[in-house]
Amino acid sequence: MSTSATAKVPAPEKPGTPPPYGALDRYFKISERGSSLSREIRGGFATFFAMAYIIVLNPIILGSAKDMYGHQLDNGQLVTATALTAAFTTLLMGVIGNVPIALAAGLGVNTVVALQLAPRMSWPDAMGMVVLAGFVVMLLVATGLRERVMNAVPLGLRKGIAIGIGLFIMLIGLVDSGFVSRMPDAAHTTVPLQLGGDGHLNGWPVLVFILGALLTLALIVRKVPGAILISIVVMTVVAVIVNAVAKVPSWGLTTPKWPGNPVSTPDFGLVGKVSIFGGFDKVGVLTGILFVFTVLLSCFFDAMGTIMGISDEAKLTDAQGQMPGMNKVLFIDGIAVAAGGASSSSATTCFVESTAGVGEGARTGFANVVTGALFAVALFLTPIATMVPSQAATPALLAVGFLILSGSIKEIDWADYTIAIPAFVTMLMMPFTYSITNGIGMGFITFVALRLAAGRGREVPVAMYVVAAVFAFYYLMPALGLL
């Protein structure tokens, strides 16, 4: 079935013949959104492979930290909790929210939980703080405040957020693949990044990434259906062969080789191990509230930026840049934050890597059903799910980053400096600070400040003033000795 609009009148169906995909098509609006079942399936696979690394990385981050009693979380239990929560929340977003936005344990938030919360309390207490943050997110959605904040963002600034996400995921791809790396602190240099691991492109893994990037872009230029997924599969096979022949010493987080035992037994020991208010007894009410606020702010605006960027790229927004059914999507995101705390996998949030699936043509929640099902399978086949090296998956982020950039940059009014400069700040601060939240916060503050400086303060929605003030307080908290 063609995925593009056509002027031809379809041939009449025989009596009793169901329409294409039947109830599935009607429920997920697959044809209505110009997609197809094959596109959604490819998109679901592409998103899963682009974010499957979280099954390995999240346990490393959380498992390496200790709580105030010296306790560490079990790695095997963390793998199960991470995959389980990703499966549940991604399926929920797909079936209820009907958008191709997958969810999993949020990077950045898990670091806050591991390094700021856990050392001051027990692990169940720390996860209780995350659950509370999720409840607050749901409350903000239920009162309409969260959607009001999103609707208050000017269209030009929305496009800046989308572009910033595009640049951010491109940098994620370059860093995770080893194409660029962080300069060691011992070098005493102001240059933060370098080419490869030592200023040069060395080793087979980087070559696999380069070939994967070229293959992905070539397939996109040729308009080959399934370009991103084809590239991931082909380069994974290449990586497995290279690793077997060349005996590569390190691929980073994931080694591309067939596991000796592909089946793993899930351990649900951490699920439900949470103390909602126990942390307040350890750190006091004020500090506890500030901890919840820190988690809340990161989850709130990371998800907001991701939802804006992906919905725009998937053409799910209207002329004002707003997506129908947004409140439902935002509420599910709040559920996901709380679910991450309840499973001890840290706050779960919308993953920017979902752009890999959107790049494959995913436009509906059915892609999420595929991704969520793969995470569920990963509970039992984690060794196989995590054999795709980042060097094979990250070229997708490079390609999708370009597609986002090229589609949004022309829609910013560069002649209006009160929009152009905040958009510019937003799009640069996301990759430069490695944070969607920081990019949004600095962009919002700049927007409000410049509109006031231009004598156009009345044009700024009240919600933007409030959010800019919240971000200013957030950035001043360490200086004020509140964190």
Descriptive overview:
By secondary structure, the chain is an all-alpha fold. The protein has helices at residues 23-28, 37-51, 54-63, 75-97, 109-117, 123-142, 145-152, 155-177, 204-221, 227-246, 278-283, 285-313, 326-342, 355-359, 366-385, 390-393, 395-408, 417-433, 436-453, 462-476; strands at residues 103-105, 180-182, 193-195, 348-350. It has one domain (33-476). The protein has 20 helices and four strands. The strands form two sheets. A two-stranded antiparallel ribbon has the order 1-4. Helix 4 packs antiparallel against helix 13 (326-342). The longest helix is centred in the middle third of the chain and has 29 residues, at 285-313. The radius of gyration is 22 Å and the shape is globular. It starts with 22 loop residues before the first helix and ends in a 7-residue tail after the last helix.
| SSE series | HHHHEHHHHEEHHHHHEHHHHHHH
Give the amount of beta strand, in percent: under 5%
Q: From the alpha carbons, calculate the radius of gyration and give it in angstroms.
A: 22 Å
Oligomeric state of this protein: single chain
On the 0-100 scale, what is the average pLDDT?
88
